[in-house]
Amino acid sequence: MDKVRKMERVAALTKIMTDRPRYLFSLSQFSELFGAAKSTICEDITTIKETMGHFGLGIIETVAGAAGGVRFIPKVSDTDTDNILHELAFRLAEPDRIIPGGFLYMSDLLFTPHLMVKVGEIFMQRLAHLEPNYILTVETKGIPLAFMTARAFDLPLITVRHGSKVTEGSAVSINYVSGSSKRIQTMSLPKRAVPSGARVLIIDDFMKAGATARGMVDLTNEVGAKVVGIGVLVATAEPEHKLVADYLSLLILHDVDEHTKITDIRPVLTSD
């Protein structure tokens, strides 16, 4: 193997670490990959760390000890966070998004990768202190958002289904009353998906009364795991008291007027 130049190592190291946020890479891995001494790799990482910090692109964290290494932690500045949430609020307030029944069409935004990557990083940044082991969501629209949050945390994603699938083995199921349709629905979770004692973070796209979130909490409890937090992209202002007590919402939907085509949706800013 030809000797790898510093510029090439720095570019490759940056790509490798940012492709897998929060994953702890050992210096030995990089030393073997590039055929360079650990001291040389440390110098490269220092260069990346300073550059990331200067442009506010994230944090390079070094963990000391035999089991230590280096990892990239995404960081979205307060200004960038507020800009992203303002953009989402502006786009969700577009008149043609209003669906009969007072709902908003959100699927195009939820399935836009670069937006959900950033929203996932915002959730990770605001909820990292909860130290979850798993990210949990319910099919279907919330999956891209939850998946990008799982990526930012470097954690597995678990999807609760409406009804069980024979391909996933035995499952735990519960009935709940949907807050939007007021119908009794069933959600299920494969028993092997979440180990007993796991710390679970619920991520979803929308919350009205909180019935779906309450169902996911109850389902998680049934398999012996613990919900440590709930994050939703949009929550309605009413009802004020949801069926779950503690949750983080990035946007608050105050009103949708089908006649005037005016939507009052506001971001929850970092200064709030």
TrEMBL record:
Its EC number is 2.4.2.7. Pfam families: Pribosyltran, PuR_N. SUPFAM superfamilies: PRTase-like, Winged helix' DNA-binding domain. Keywords: DNA-binding, Glycosyltransferase, Transcription, Transcription regulation, Transferase. GO terms for biological process: negative regulation of DNA-templated transcription; negative regulation of purine nucleobase metabolic process. Residues 5-74 form the Bacterial purine repressor N-terminal domain. Residues 113-248 form the Phosphoribosyltransferase domain. PANTHER family: HYPOXANTHINE/GUANINE PHOSPHORIBOSYLTRANSFERASE (PTHR43864), PUR OPERON REPRESSOR (PTHR43864:SF2). This is Adenine phosphoribosyltransferase. It comes from Sporomusa ovata. The lineage of its organism: Bacteria, Bacillati, Bacillota, Negativicutes, Selenomonadales.
